[in-house]
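Deliverable D5.2: sample structural annotation.
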Amino acid sequence: MLEHVLNLGHQLKTDLETSEEFTSFDNERILIVGMGGSGVAGDVLKLILNQHTNIDVEVRKAYNLTKSQIAARPFCLFISYSGNTEETISVVKDAIDQNLEWAAISSGGELLDLATKHNKKFVKVPDGLQPRAAFGLMTKAVVNYLPNQTKESFINACDEAGNYLNNLTEDTSNEVFEISRDIANQIGSKTAVIYAGSDLTYLVAQRWKTQINENSKSKAFVGFMPEVHHNEILSWEADPDGSKNNFILILLRGDDHKKIDNRFELTKELLGSKVDVLDIKNISSDNLIKDLFHLVLIGDLVSVNLADHLNIDPFNIDAIENLKKKLKG
């Protein structure tokens, strides 16, 4: 899995195959549907659209469209690396039944077959990876769908971020690798609880969680600041010894609101005696993709190092495959 993490930069620079006469979308309302390692690319697209356009965007991770979504008549973007994700295909069929406009991102499977059959545009990514290992490719794929006035700048942003990551990963003894190894060692067999305070860091926190879940087969949970100060901050009081021995709190910091910065500092002050706290500060640049993938790279490396620390096979997804078989009956 490490080689896939080190390939993130190259993935961001990859030119992807598109359908004939491919065009970006030009719609006021977008609904993005995807699950797991594929669905997180939809979260990236939502982050970009929210910050740089006036498009109304929603991400759906379920089996069906709601009545209000159907009534809104959104343009739907379906994302499934394999092309066979059960939940995503179910919503595609809803969109077809409701005569909604839609497009796809996939490496193949039923999703691309349906897109071809119904003459819908698509971006095709290289196959042969587990979905979580294709995050760079899937991010580049969603950027292709950005409105024309935004698309070119983010294609360039992906290239710049790719160069940045490639430079970082040339030397595995640099600070990023040292930080990730240290974080993995401190997590050990504990449960990681990851707090974020901005849309970007919350997206990354969820990526850290799922990478720790899948690569190191370990528990991790996320919280969003300031919401956790209205409830979860109290959860560390009932069993202080258990909290200290069994959990580790990771704060992902970025270009946060000044009040969020203050809340992070108060969190360390109030919880530092109850749980070990790691404070991770992101870089700050004028390139959203670069800032995003800097923290993503650290988290991916943490999950791989943690798997190594726990003697876990990152590629083993037997539990997920067994569940899929049971769902099919």
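Annotation notes: The domain at 171-309 is CATH 3.40.50.10490 (Rossmann fold). The chain has two domains: 2-166, 171-309.
The annotation will be released with the project's public dataset once the embargo ends.
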